[in-house]
């Protein structure tokens, strides 16, 4: 990667950076280039960061079952979601303010993902307008939504997304306010004045540059599952719920009419102490019973991690921080390289475990959990839930 133009760069001594070969390499490069408080905002989690650490640790503890003489030449890495084929089961999670990592921001990320046929979920707090991002994209775009106290602001975003060709909405359901992120509190972190939530310009929700304080003022804490149907009604778009970790919430989401569920703990940034996403996945998959596709984000850093998530029932995964790290390390080309590395690793892992297509990847691809390792156990048996029915089922044909 070429040297970045900003930040306390380790490249100050003129040494070229080594070509990144893994997603962890991108993180190291980004850390050298970003101002420390920006690094902390991106890398950090809530509380003692136990969940943040667990997300990667649980993937690290997975053991794969190889296939000898697999006889797989070129695996077909593609998957179908909401009726659209992705080149591989990986997309970019919604992450606020891409301009924090690189001045080219979200359009550069969208172009990079599009070049590889992979989707991008644009954040409500994108630093560029969703129309501008759509202009740069050539693969599916979804728009992530926070619901503000002024519902009109959020509903307007949903309509704008539809008008700009976005294919789905992703309602984040784990964030009545942002978690207690101690790094940001200690750093007094504020988003630099020249970087703004472009899609909220002029709205009642545009406000403080301090994400934690702003979320406590502006987000609707009284939100319930009926908002899924409302979003669908105003936009006609399928709505996914992001931030589901339990069977009861998965059931509530499906009953509310979601077109998909994203198993997520917000990258360990919300409630510290909740399970790693790979741990939570079997419970959610069991509860959903195939009615809608299940995605996962949090801690995915290798192609083998993608395989593990698919083996436990995810249709696809999303990566959050790696996108910003790659953007910081090398702008749009950095993101493209990061995604190419990840999908190439995934393809290799498919061959070495004997899978010609993603459809054959199942639990028998993983070794059984070993005592003492934080691996996901079998899903609990389906049981009755106490969730009220809040909205008609809609869009269940998707995926
Ligand atoms: C800097 C940063 C900003 C984020 N912004 C949002 C956001 O605006 N909306 C949202 O739903 N999730 C947001 N997330 C959470 C991600 O969508 C995703 O759940 C998480 O990053 C996945 O974990 P990973 O970073 O380990 O891949 C953010 C995460 C980070 C690190
Ligand atoms: C601006 C924030 C609300 C974005 C976010 O969701 C996060 O930082 O995790």
UniProtKB/TrEMBL annotation:
Keywords for the protein's UniProt record, in alphabetical order: Flavoprotein, FMN, Oxidoreductase
Give the residues annotated as active site: 266
Q: Which cofactor does it need?
A: FMN
Q: Which GO terms describe its molecular function?
A: FMN binding; oxidoreductase activity, acting on CH-OH group of donors
Q: What class of enzyme is it?
A: oxidoreductase
Looking up Gene3D superfamilies in the UniProt record yields: Aldolase class I (3.20.20.70)
Where is FMN bound in this sequence?
A: 94-96, 123, 144, 172, 242, 264, 297-301, 320-321
- Ranges of Pro residues compositional bias? 366-385
- EC assignment: the record states 1.-.-.-
The record, for InterPro entries, names: Aldolase_TIM, Alpha-hydoxy_acid_DH_FMN, FMN-dep_DH, FMN_HAD, FMN_hydac_DH_AS
Write out the transmembrane intervals: none
> What residues does the FMN hydroxy acid dehydrogenase domain cover?
15-371
Region annotation (Disordered) ranges: 354-399
Give binding positions for glyoxylate.
146, 181, 266, 269
Protein family according to the UniProt entry: Belongs to the FMN-dependent alpha-hydroxy acid dehydrogenase family.
Name by which UniProt lists this protein: Alpha-hydroxy acid oxidase
Organism expressing this protein natively: Streptomyces rochei
């Amino acid at each position: 990667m070429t040297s970045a133009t900003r930040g306390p760069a380790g490249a100050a001594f003129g040494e070229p950076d080594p070509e990144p070969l893994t997603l962890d390499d991108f993180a190291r490069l980004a850390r050298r280039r970003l101002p420390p408080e920006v690094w902390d905002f991106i890398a950090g989690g809530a509380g003692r960061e136990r969940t943040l650490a667990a997300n990667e640790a649980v993937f690290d503890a997975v053991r794969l079952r190889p296939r000898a003489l697999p006889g797989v030449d070129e695996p077909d890495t593609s998957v179908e979601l909401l009726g659209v084929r992705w080149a591989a089961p990986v997309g970019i999670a919604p992450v606020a303010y891409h301009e924090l990592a690189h001045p080219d921001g979200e359009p550069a990320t969208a172009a990079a993902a599009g070049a590889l046929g992979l989707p991008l979920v644009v954040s409500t707090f994108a630093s560029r307008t969703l129309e501008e991002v759509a202009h740069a994209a050539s693969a599916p775009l979804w728009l992530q939504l926070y619901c503000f106290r002024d519902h009109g602001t959020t509903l307007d975003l949903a309509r704008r997304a539809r008008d700009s060709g976005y294919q789905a909405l992703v309602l984040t359901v784990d964030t009545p306010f942002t978690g207690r992120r101690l790094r940001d509190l200690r750093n007094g972190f504020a988003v630099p004045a020249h970087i703004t939530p472009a899609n909220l310009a002029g709205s009642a929700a545009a406000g403080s540059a301090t994400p934690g304080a702003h979320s406590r003022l502006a987000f609707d804490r009284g939100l319930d599952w009926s908002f899924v149907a409302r979003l669908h009604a105003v936009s006609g778009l399928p709505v996914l719920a992001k931030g589901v970790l339990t069977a009861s919430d998965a059931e509530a989401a499906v009953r509310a009419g979601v077109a998909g569920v994203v198993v997520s703990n917000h990258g360990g940034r919300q409630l510290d102490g909740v399970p790693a996403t790979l741990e939570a996945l079997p419970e959610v998959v069991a509860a959903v019973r195939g009615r809608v596709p299940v995605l996962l984000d949090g801690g995915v850093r290798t192609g083998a991690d993608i395989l593990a998530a698919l083996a436990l029932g995810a249709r696809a995964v999303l990566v959050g921080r790696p996108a910003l790290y790659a953007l910081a390390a090398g702008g749009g080309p950095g993101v493209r390289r990061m995604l190419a590395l990840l999908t190439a690793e995934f393809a290799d892992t498919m061959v070495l475990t004997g899978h010609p297509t993603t459809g054959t990847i199942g639990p028998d691809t993983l070794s059984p959990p070993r005592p003492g390792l934080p691996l996901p156990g079998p899903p609990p048996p389906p049981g009755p839930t106490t969730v009220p029915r809040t909205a008609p089922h809609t869009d269940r044909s998707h995926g």
